[in-house]
Amino acid sequence: MNEEIFRWINGWAGHFHFLDIFMIVLTNSVPYITVAMILFLWFNRKGEEGIERQYTALYIVFSALLALLINEGIHLVYYHPRPFVAHHVHQLIPHSADSSFVSDHAILAFSIAWILLFRRDKWGYPALGWAIVVSISRIFVGVHYPADVVGSMVLSCGTSGLVLSLSKRFDFLAQMIFRLDDTVTKHIPLLSKYRHESLHKKG
C-alpha cells in the first residue's frame, strides 16, 4: 500500500506545470516558514499572552530538535532507499540518496502543528493543514514515501507530548534563553518591547 499510494500521488507530477511549481516551492519553503513561524510567535504579542507565545516557540524548537535527533539515530540503524533510488519516479527536486525514513521536513511541520494544537493555539488547525499539505508535497516531488511522512507525524507527536509533559523540567533552559534574549534585545530599541522581562511587567 505504501508504494501504491506513493505512485498515485507522484503520478500527478509532470502533468500540470503550475502544480509542479506550487509543490516545489511549498516543499522547499518548509525550513524558512518554520523559522518565520517561531519568530512570529516570539515577537507577536505583549503581556502574558506574549509570554505564553514565547514558551510555545521554545517548545516547538525543543520538540523539533528532539525529533530530528531521534531521526538521526534511526538513520544510523535503519536504511530505507528513497523512491528515486528504488524506482523510476517523477523526481522534481534534487536530493541526496540517504535514508528515506523519516522525513525531516515533515518533522518540522508537524512539530509546529502538534505544539500549537496541544497548547490550544488558534493557529493549531491551520498549522496541521499546512503540515499535511507539506507531507503530500514530499511525496509529490518524489523524495519520500507516505510511510516516511506518517512516521514523522507520529514521531513529532510523541516528542511534542514529551516536551510539554516535561515542561517544568525544561523551564531552567527556557529561563536561560529568556535571560540571553533580554540581554541582547535590550540594546535594540525595535525589539526591546518584546523582552521576556518587559512582557512580564506589562502582563
From TrEMBL:
<feature type="transmembrane region" description="Helical">
    <location>
        <begin position="99"/>
        <end position="118"/>
    </location>
</feature>
<feature type="transmembrane region" description="Helical">
    <location>
        <begin position="149"/>
        <end position="167"/>
    </location>
</feature>
<dbReference type="InterPro" id="IPR036938">
    <property type="entry name" value="PAP2/HPO_sf"/>
</dbReference>
<dbReference type="GO" id="GO:0005886">
    <property type="term" value="C:plasma membrane"/>
</dbReference>
<dbReference type="InterPro" id="IPR033879">
    <property type="entry name" value="UPP_Pase"/>
</dbReference>
<feature type="transmembrane region" description="Helical">
    <location>
        <begin position="125"/>
        <end position="143"/>
    </location>
</feature>
<feature type="domain" description="Phosphatidic acid phosphatase type 2/haloperoxidase">
    <location>
        <begin position="57"/>
        <end position="164"/>
    </location>
</feature>
<keyword id="KW-0378">Hydrolase</keyword>
<keyword id="KW-1133">Transmembrane helix</keyword>
<keyword id="KW-0472">Membrane</keyword>
<dbReference type="Pfam" id="PF01569">
    <property type="entry name" value="PAP2"/>
</dbReference>
<dbReference type="GO" id="GO:0050380">
    <property type="term" value="F:undecaprenyl-diphosphatase activity"/>
</dbReference>
<protein>
    <submittedName>
        <fullName>Undecaprenyl-diphosphatase</fullName>
        <ecNumber>3.6.1.27</ecNumber>
    </submittedName>
</protein>
<feature type="transmembrane region" description="Helical">
    <location>
        <begin position="55"/>
        <end position="79"/>
    </location>
</feature>
<feature type="transmembrane region" description="Helical">
    <location>
        <begin position="21"/>
        <end position="43"/>
    </location>
</feature>
<dbReference type="InterPro" id="IPR000326">
    <property type="entry name" value="PAP2/HPO"/>
</dbReference>
<keyword id="KW-0812">Transmembrane</keyword>
